[in-house]
Specification:
Rossmann fold, about 35% helix, alpha/beta, single chain, about 190 residues
């Protein structure tokens, strides 16, 4: 698969870090674009933020990256974390950066666009922007962890969200906790 991963200046860099750690770079082409504020937040929130060697990094100012054109074939784009400001700009059709233009292209080409906001609570403007994006075909996946897997660490809690992101992209992790099947068996691998 060819996937664009983007990050904005919202809190939640740990979700991005864990997502990057769980992708097989030998099997997939991954492009990363981070806003200036995303890089600042990463330095504040994650002591040793690492971008794996297999990731192609791009500047948010570079409008010549391949994923800003509808003629370039990409499978999915995820913005994690996605600030409400970015979500609003995408909902309004703003395309004044590589990240925003790519999101616009994924919507217009009917490709999978996954937005992972962490902001809470929402105001009415946030809710309306989310509805606009849902109607346009985006997947809005708030960074809300689940607890039925009984996570026992911050990383395990974060992974409950990351596994949902990977499922939506189409890159499921074999370690993902799954709800028990009909026989009552569960997968508790962590």
């Amino acid at each position: 698969m060819k996937v664009v991963i983007a990050a904005t200046g919202a809190s939640g860099t740990i979700y991005l870090q864990r997502l990057l750690e769980q992708i097989n770079y030998a099997a997939h082409e991954i492009h990363l674009v981070m806003s200036t504020y995303a890089r600042h937040v990463a330095k504040q929130e994650v002591d040793d933020f690492k971008i794996p060697a297999g990731v192609s990094q791009h500047s948010d100012n570079d409008m010549n990256v391949p994923f800003v054109s509808g003629s370039a074939r990409f499978d999915a784009m995820v913005i994690v974390p996605c600030s409400m400001a970015t979500l609003g700009r995408i909902a309004s059709g703003s395309s004044d950066s590589a990240l925003l233009r790519a999101a616009d292209v994924f919507l217009k080409e009917r490709r999978k666009l996954i937005l992972v906001p962490r902001e809470t609570p929402w105001n009415l403007i946030h809710a309306r922007n989310v509805v606009t994006l849902l109607e346009a075909g985006a997947i809005v996946l708030p960074a809300i962890p689940s607890f039925y897997s009984r996570p026992n660490s911050v990383i395990a809690v974060v992974d409950t969200v990351v596994w949902r992101i990977l499922d939506q992209i189409g890159l499921p992790n074999p370690r993902t906790y799954r709800w028990p099947d009909k026989a009552g068996k569960t997968s508790r691998k962590r």
